[in-house]
Amino acid sequence: MKFGYNNKTGKVWSLTSWLDQADPNKGNFELKMDPKKSNGVFLMRGTEILWMSGPWNGYGFAFMPEMLSPYIFNYFNYSMYSDENETYFSYSLYNSSVITRFIIDVTGHMRELLWFEESQQWMSIWSEPRQFCEVLNSCGPFSSCSEDTTSCRCLRGFYPSGKQQGQDGGCMRRVALTCGNGDNRDMFLRMNHVRYPVSSTQQINSSYNFPSGPQVSNSDAKACGEACLSNCTCSAYAYNTSGLCLRWYGDILGLEQLSEKDPNGRTIFIKLAASEFDNGRVLGANWYLWIIAIPIVLVVFLPASYIVIRWKKSFKNKGDREDPSQDILLFDMEMSITTSSSNFLATDNFSSENKLGEGGFGPVYKGKLLNGQEIAVKRLSKRSGQGLEELKNETMLIAKLQHRNLVRLLGCCLEQGEKILIYEFMPNKSLDSFLFGSNNEGLLDWGTRVRIIEGIAQGLLYLHQYSRLRIIHRDLKASNILLDGEMNPKISDFGLARMFGGDKLQANTNRIVGTYGYMSPEYAMEGLFSIKSDVFSFGVLLLEIVSGKKSTGFYHSSSLNLIGHAWELWKGDRVVELMDPKLEDQVSYPMLYRYINVALLCVQEMAADRPTMSEVVSMLSNELTVLNSPKKPAFSTARSTTNSSNQPEKFSVNDVTVS
Prior knowledge:
Elements: E1 2-6, E2 12-13, E3 15-20, E4 23-33, E5 41-45, E6 48-52, H1 70-73, E7 76-82, E8 86-93, E9 100-104, E10 110-116, E11 121-128, E12 143-146, E13 151-154, E14 158-160, E15 171-173, E16 187-195, E17 199-201, E18 211-212, E19 215-218, H2 221-229, E20 234-239, E21 244-249, E22 252-253, E23 255-257, E24 266-272, E25 277-278, E26 281-282, H3 287-320, H4 326-330, E27 336-337, H5 340-346, E28 355-358, E29 363-368, E30 374-379, H6 388-398, E31 409-415, E32 418-424, H7 431-435, H8 446-466, E33 470-472, E34 481-483, E35 489-491, E36 498-500, E37 506-508, E38 514-515, H9 521-526, E39 528-530, H10 531-547, H11 562-571, H12 589-602, H13 613-621, E40 657-658
Parallel strand pairs: 12-23, 27-31
Antiparallel strand pairs: 1-2, 1-8, 3-4, 4-5, 5-6, 7-8, 9-10, 10-11, 12-13, 14-15, 16-23, 16-24, 17-18, 17-22, 19-21, 20-21, 20-24, 25-26, 28-29, 29-30, 30-32, 31-32, 33-36, 34-35, 37-39, 38-40
Helix pairs in contact: 8-10, 8-13, 10-12
Organism: Gossypium lobatum
Domain Protein kinase: 350-625
GO molecular function, one term: ATP binding
């Protein structure tokens, strides 16, 4: 596949869509390189740009981080070439036996497809645009896009230029910029939690209205703002902690409003006329309504506020007379709302001696109740990738679930900036410390591993089929399996779990979260998840338990990962070689063979081919059940070892939660 142009003749190599499903004549959409020579690729509809890849950075395109994900990076060899004669981007397959095709359908949706011989089906491994907000001009100029509601909204100080807000031409300024000094000088509106605009418009030739990105320079924050203020065509600026000043000129396109919990959120300053501000604060579009509303609000709000303040003061005084340590230190089995002071007391002020470990949520500490019961206290870290929504999600879900193979939530705290969850204490910590650590190896014998496998399967079966809610865990892995004093497994960490209602069997998300090495292909590549996504994760976990090796941390000369290695041994009838050497004198070989068979059934490429957890439990426990032969699993293709020197040869992100 090759995209580019001849620098001398002007010839362009591009890909166009069909006119319709049955007519291969040139259609409405074309994928081509940027003639401005920014080494970027654009999806065009006539002269309109719908999507852009961002510039080439040496490894991939700036707006396509998925190019470097292990699920795509290991299939394709990318290259960008430029000299005085031609400039082009191309890619090829490391494995010439793999069949692939790239298409633009009649709706302008781009997809990369792989052919899977076993299932006789094409499978999409990449697609763009994936979200409504990723279509470059989906909302028009000076409008923000919200993916949560798939809607557009005019920025403050702007009004719709068409019938619908933010659409049919975007938005226009309510008051023109003055570009003056003194009292009439323009000012800036601060917008938080946004994704920077992809571009601002700039006419570069007579045929195409190509967008250009922000101008970037080094300066301090004040100089950055002054530079934009002194240029009448500058529409917005941003300043980051690295000392980079970004300025956008002309119409702003592609601004996206993110949720407060999104770690990708940034701050931008939009230039508005001084008359849009009142003593430094922006007036809304319907400012005249405030003249009517403010007296009404004062009449109603002030008496109500007085009553609320008196009530809260009375409640606080009552609480001050009680020992704040009693709420958590005396509660037993019921869900409790605790105070931050009691959590400090239970954990000895979160001392380092009581720290059990740290995960994506934050550190976990050991604590003790007044009745002697030991507990685990999970405290949200300020630098955590997870936040209040994940905490709420876990609290609501796990409080409604009761099963011997699910960890029990005892209480929570949302007070004085603290976000804390309190669980039953698991003295043997997590499964990964036994499988991949050097301590307590003797405790994980074959019988214990069998009990752990069966317990995890029973816990998942409960989540999928027998609980009051159908729950998809979405982050099942060894570090999320906790072990009690008798080495019984407990599934933990429901912060990323999703609840299904009614007869719903699968869902789609644009925010892919989970852990590399455990995610199913349809989820990692397309955002599709279902109970079969958890089944895939269980299959990976089962292989790790019987082998004692990490899924993505394991490399073999002819295999991409542990799944690929297990598949090669299965095809060669050498599955015994997968067994953890420490189990050599303990294992039941027919049971080992059955467990590996079940694991490979769980990690099959197509979700429809994988068993349900009820079928998995039956296959694991009933020796008379006849097992099917597994089809080729996902992510098992070996990658060529002739990598270029500037690309990583190995990587392991087995313990990294991504979003």
